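Shipment paperwork, digital attachment
Item: protein structure file
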Amino acid sequence: MKYFFSFICLLILCPDVFSEATDGSAGMEPNYTLSVSFDIPHSRLDGIARIAVNKDEELIFDVSNLSILDVTLDGVKIDHVIARGEMISRTLKPGELKIVYTASFGLSKSDTADIGIIDNVIAEQGIFLTGTWYPRPRRLMAYRLSAVLPSGYEAVSEAERIDSTAKDGKSEFTFLFDHRTDHLNFIASNRFSIVKERFREIDLYAYFFDKDMNLAKDYLEHAKRYFDLYQKMLTPYPYRRFSIVENILPTGYSMPTFTLLGRDVVKLPFIVRTSLGHEILHQWFGNSVYIDSDKGNWAEGLTTYLADHFYADQSGEGVDYRKQILIDYQSYVNIDNVFPLRDFRGRTDFSSKAIGYGKAAMLFHMLKQQIGEVGFQGALRRFLSDNSFRKASWDDLKSSFAVSTGTDWGDFFDQWLNSTTVPDLTAGSAIVRQKGEGYEISFDLRQKTKPFTMTVPVTIYESTKKETIPSKISREMDTITLYSRELPERIVIDEGYDVMRRLSSEEFPAVIARILGDAGPMLILPQSETDTYKKIIGTFVNRGASIKKGSDIDHSLAAKNTLIILGADNPILKRFGGAPKQMTGGFTLDVRRNPLNRDKVIAIINAESTEEVDSAFPKIFHYGKYSRLAFSKGKNILKETDSSQKGLTLEIEAEAAAVHVPDMKDLSQVITAVGDRRIVYVGENHDNYANHAVQLEFIKDLSGSGVQIAIGMEMFQKPFQPVLDEFIKGSIDQKTFLKKTEYFKRWGFDYDLYKPILDYARDNRIPVIALNIEKEIVDSVAKDGIDALPPDVKAKIPQAMDFSDEQYKKRLQKIFMMHESLKERNFDFFNQAQILWDESMSQSIADYLSSHPDRRMIVLAGNGHLTYGSGIPKRTARRNGLSYAIVLNDDELVKGIADYVVFPKHIEGKKPVRMMVLLDENKGRVTITGFPENSISKKAGLEEGDIIMFIDDTPISSIDDVKIHLLEKHNEEKIRVKILRGYGGAAKDMQFEITL
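Attachment content:
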């Protein structure tokens, strides 16, 4: 049931009676007396409000949902007019204002479907009045409430004492409350049983439904602990009475002198350990010092900090709690829904909670970190004393802290309350220098947003201890300088999450909150059974999602968006590492990082039936901190959160690696050690002959031991596999092989480096597999990206490509930045090209071994494709899970870089034969375009512009022809070069002899 809001606005002469108290107001006479009676079968209440008025005062009453029957002043009707939701009446006479009204608050089926929005209910199940159920003035008043109910009912409202009398089958309750308050609430039921205990000066009550009375004792025992805690931490409890009231609606409310907990809520085992304490603490913050909502709600954040966070911290989980605050903020708050903390009035959705509860709690944490525990609690006690039973604002908090600590906290509060941004910190690599008997560590700490002035904890890890040093920053870039007695192992910034800030990608796990908080995710429809996901589709579309088919999503679109993929068999999953593994249940949800964009995520939802969706899907909104969920018939059977880095970790030059010399192995021992792996990756520096000699040793040893092997080579591209096969079979000669594979155009390194390997494979009929994708495709992607490829070319590239290896990406970025020729290009396209290169070779390996299960493979590729397994090895393992080993040649000794690093002795290979000319090829003609210094061809008489027609008797129509012909020559050998010089009729044939 929905209601329209209106107001009675009365211009009445009463300056003193309604002025807000500036100090405690115990024992004051009420200036608002309210009497109500109930017709429960008809969900109706009838009420009479009497307000003492004086003169020259304007009162505005909220009367939404109410039917005003009569308005009189000292028994005389007052003319009133309703205009724009306000009822206005003017009088010059003081006296008693009387408002007679009635209202109906039924509970319909539509209400129970979305029960959380209900403020008022009068029904057989119980009475729940927390909204506008009486003419409510917009200021603090001292109330006296009486209520008539059928016999057998018990009732609760704001009261230090509740009196009741019974007569004629009715019970009348009178609620005595000696303080001004901004609102009355009323709860009643004929199913309550009451337990009472006395705790020091407080009367504790538990109003529980009969079937839940077994919970009452535990709730009261926990309540005593909370009162003991907060009376020591803050001030004495401001009232004489406190009640824990079970409620028919799923609420968790705190009102002066009592808390309401829903009937489903009270049964949850964690409520007494967390939520009960939170609601009791609100008796101080919000229910005795009231919230000046027009100036912002400070109470939720302060209560969250001193309750929920405090309990977590006491259990050793404070760091995780604070990190979760930052995760929730970053997940739910975006440019479309952000607002300054000062503007928070109350929780309306996930984003407002992340600001008003989470960011505010962090504000108080940062404040306490600077003041200290004793000073912080002292300032809060002053705040409570200064603002008892009056409305307080952030400015009042600021004033109390300033007076208590003797420090002006204006700038601190202003930057955290008024800004819509939070700090976004990045740090450069740490530079460590020896200084005296210790070490000086310096690094730059940058703020990407408008700079905040704040203190950031920096932790130095040494071999035996760690030290945390608070470092103050205030500029766009601050240089931090620290000292350490030992050489530091690592530096971590804010590992305890003591600062409100944005998390780095390494700290920000892929969690469900990130799909719930995304303003416009893309929903990828399943191949079939769309009806199964109808509820999910409708919910996300209503939240701003767009609907797409997998075929609509290109690389660029996937990189810009959060994707929600429906169905574990959705073909688009091949592009993102496949479906979740080892997840069982009728409904599963898996969230992972979007490998194309670290600020986005991918969610995979799979359901066995519509029934599983209906029973499980609505619950995911309460599981935002998890990465994976599984439900069976609505019952949760799995919940996991991905691990993530704690704090911003700085790079420090790695400690020098050391090798235990007695453990060093000979090459033969290495070959034996890896001989049982299905794949052995042997890396190379392409132009190092000794590296290729090591590769040949692996091939000879393993093939000689009877193992059926194949050789995978980066140097050849897949379209030329038939030519490779012919060459290995002996069907074509070397010249034809090199010509048809376009070896010199597509690879370019001296063939003599690889010739011994290929000759051995040919002699022993060992299959050689062309691993590489066409050079033109890789070049095109490096220039314009994957999305620019035409459809027929896209069909050639692997459908499953993993972009999620952030460390690999960082290493590529370093390489990219080191080359001046690359800096003008797009790094994202460069990254795409490198991964396409690796994935294509991985796909070739997996395809071959899948169709040849009896063979093992030795893969020859550049070290860069193999280090840390990131390039080819892990991608192949993702495809087939086969065992592998990585052996690198002449690379760094770094932990994790490979299984073995070989350092072969230098071997001088065949010195390449050169004509020492620069050539250009165009339309079957090879033209000399220049000469290097001391060129033998220039000395022999050749000139720029000469067209090479023949070398010896071999016709030349391509640069490959020149290189292939020279392969069989030796230094000091002579060749005859026939050229065409000149143009048109002046052109003439000439022949020269050159000594190589």
